[in-house]
Design goal:
The structure holds two protein chains of two kinds. Helix content of chain A is about 75%, strand content about 5%. Chain A has 21 helices and four strands. In chain A, the strands form two sheets. Chain A has a two-stranded antiparallel sheet with strand order 1-2. In chain A, a hairpin with a 2-residue loop joins β3 and β4. In chain B, α1 runs antiparallel to α2 and α2 runs antiparallel to α3. The chains are: A mainly alpha, B mainly alpha.
């Protein structure tokens, strides 16, 4: 590769460059600023906004970057990638805002520099995960995300459960990335290439060995499934979500999951799809991803929903609920069509607001009462009606009832499933939503219908927090009624480079 | 069987046997020393494959660096030596069946698959220069990203070590 290609590639990674620069700036600023550590919050927010500006540029781009002398490149910049990068940045923006008032983070203020530096490392890793089209880059970026999140899960180290979360995350993560690496090595062994586009080209020849590809595909899926917490790779989720600081839990449940999903979409669509017929993707005969995704999505959503029924800790319950949501999105993925891809994009955009919102309310309440147990939430809906009602809206939306945005998200997945005549899966999805109604409504029962024991607790929401909460509630309500712009936006953002 | 094969099987055996002892011994020190042999065996296989640079790095970094650090860690924390580590096996029957089935599948696939052969001849000259060219050209992005990965790992380790 000549230097010219390198220079030509640089404009395509502007957001990543900004993120890397922010990481370094935060490390340096942490050394210089000794008194007013709060400044770091603002530096971090500025970094996010600057990166967001350059992500907007990428919506109109469609190109390879870092290609070796004209070959298919290591990095793809396309509108689907830009959509998910925007999603990750929005999630980070909100999580940074949460961090201002999180007790857990404020109590370990001396670590604020490390906290943000690691978060930026994680975001950077996610960006490369989103646009990677080379398996080596996929692996390295996944490691970057994982390494930062292991430490972040245990950053406060106040309680035993914090360290437990970190250690469990590390052990599961190391095993699954090892398995994934083995899968990648098998793929390289058959095709002699790590580039997804070249792999696709080689797999088109009829004499490829299908059994080993199936094995390799499943092994790679283990690594991705771990990131999106799909069953049966979800075992870490409840413990880590419960033990990690709540800002990190919220971030993992949205951003980490979305980066994992893009990787899955890109891995399947670029490497294993022959062509697209009327918006339906025709799989290469190599691996039957449709059946695999179908089975896994049923398993994931059912397991997530049924396990959530018995949870008394709200973070744990939201962890299982996030597993269930991954199941719904896997169902949309199993359709293997443009319609399904649009549904995933819509669902993720909505899931971001409702899930972050739910975590934010839990954080605000547990800041005050110091617990996330459901019994301690008795009667709190009246202590602060604003918090109570917003929580109710988020939970109704997570269930998928109209007139909230969650309904629209589910509706589009449902449409995609019915369009593809996958009736069984759509029925199972509806039944699952009914099951989820029980555990979401159980929280509301505790909030509004149970009398609080002991002295009434005063819950005041400060003005900045109220603004952040409104920024999350309003989209959930508005997108439930006026969703055409989002749908149009998603329709325009599904171009995956090369197809 | 020629000399090449004999040497290969020798190193493979060293790797496997020592790896087995790493997991099964109850004493951490013995585990660490066995790990040394495992890394050494892998380095030998690298040499046989003509990956001279990789083999040397394996010895310098793993055997020379990481393992010595590990041993120091074990020796300086005197309590660890006496701690009985649980290496007992639970669910031994299902595990045996699962592992047996999986290794059966793997072995049959390894034997039956038509592997892609790229450049089967051993490189005559040193590979270091070519590796350097590749890292600074085609794989420059990954090389730089690894730099950030190491920075993040360093920050993370410092964060964990700090109270």
């Amino acid at each position: 590769m000549e230097l010219k290609y390198l220079f030509n590639s640089l404009p395509y990674i502007k957001p990543e460059l900004i993120l890397a620069a922010s990481l370094v700036i935060i490390v340096v600023a942490d050394l210089i600023i000794t008194k007013k550590k709060e400044l770091l919050h603002y530096i971090a927010l500025a970094g996010i906004i600057a990166a967001g500006y350059f992500v907007l540029e990428q919506f109109s781009m469609n190109a390879f970057a870092f290609s070796s002398s004209g070959n298919k490149g290591m990095l793809t910049v396309d509108s689907m990638g830009a959509f998910f990068k925007g999603l990750v940045l929005t999630a980070s923006f909100f999580v940074f805002l949460f961090s201002f008032s999180s007790n857990e983070i404020n109590e370990s203020r001396s670590k604020l520099g490390e906290y943000y530096a690691l978060l930026f490392g994680m975001i950077l890793g996610m960006f490369f995960m989103i646009s990677a089209s080379d398996l080596i880059l996929v692996y390295v970026s996944m490691e970057l995300v994982s390494l930062s999140s292991y430490v972040l899960a245990g950053i406060t180290k106040q309680s035993l459960r914090n360290s437990e979360a970190s250690l469990k995350y590390l052990i599961y993560g190391a095993v699954s990335s090892g398995i994934m690496l083995f899968g990648i090595s098998l793929i390289f062994g058959i095709t002699g290439s790590t580039n997804l586009y070249e792999i696709n080209y080689i797999l088109r020849s009829p004499e490829t060995n299908r059994v080993i590809l199936l094995l390799a595909g499943l092994l790679v899926f283990t690594g991705i499934g771990y990131k999106i917490s799909a069953a049966p790779f979800h075992f870490w989720t409840p413990d880590v979500y419960e033990g990690a600081p709540i800002t990190i839990t919220a971030f993992l449940s949205v951003a980490s999951k979305s980066a994992g999903f893009v990787l899955l979409i890109r891995f399947i669509k670029v490497a294993f799809i022959q062509n697209s017929l009327n918006g339906y993707w025709q799989l290469l005969p190599a691996v039957d991803w449709k059946t695999i995704l179908l089975v896994l999505s049923i398993l994931t959503m059912t397991l997530g929903n049924f396990a959530a029924l018995w949870q008394d800790n709200l973070k744990r319950m939201l962890a299982y609920s996030s597993i269930a949501h991954a199941g719904y999105m896997l169902a949309a993925m199993a359709v293997l069509s443009n319609q399904g891809l649009i549904a995933i994009l819509i669902y993720f955009a909505i899931y971001l607001f409702m899930n972050l919102g739910a975590f934010f309310v839990v954080m605000l309440i547990s800041n005050k009462i110091g617990s996330e147990e459901i019994d301690n939430f008795d009667g709190l809906g009246y202590a602060s009606p604003f918090l109570g009602v917003s929580f109710a809206i988020f939970l109704v939306s997570l269930t998928g009832l109209p007139p909230t945005a969650g309904f629209i998200g589910k509706l589009y997945i449902f449409i995609a499933l019915v369009d593809a005549k996958m009736f069984l899966l759509s029925v199972i999805m509806v039944l699952n939503s009914v099951v989820s109604l029980y555990y979401y409504m159980r929280v509301l029962k505790h909030l509004f219908l149970r009398k609080a024991e002991g002295a009434p607790i005063e819950l005041k929401v400060s003005f900045p927090n109220a603004v952040v909460l409104l920024m999350l509630v309003i989209p959930v309500l508005v997108l439930g009624l006026y969703f055409t712009p989002l749908v149009e936006f998603a329709k325009n953002s599904i171009s995956v480079l090369g197809f | 069987m020629n000399l090449y094969n004999i040497i290969f099987y020798l190193f493979a055996a060293i790797t496997l046997v020592s790896a087995f002892f790493v997991v099964t011994t109850r004493n951490v020190i013995y585990s660490a020393f066995n790990l040394l042999l495992t890394f050494f065996g892998v380095a030998g296989i690298y040499v046989l494959l003509g990956a001279d640079f990789l083999a040397v790095v394996q010895i310098i970094v793993y055997v020379g660096g990481i393992l010595i650090l590990l041993l120091f860690g074990v020796m300086l924390t005197n309590k660890i030596v006496n701690v009985q580590i649980r290496t007992g096996a639970t669910q031994i029957l299902p595990a045996t069946i699962a592992v047996g089935a999986f290794s059966g599948i793997l072995i049959s696939l390894l034997v039956n698959t038509e592997w892609k052969k790229v450049g089967t001849a051993l490189p005559g000259a040193s590979t270091t220069a070519n590796l350097g060219m590749l890292m600074m050209n085609e794989y420059i992005l990954i090389f730089e990203l690894l730099g950030i990965l190491l920075l993040v790992a360093l920050i993370g380790a410092a964060t964990i070590a700090r109270k």
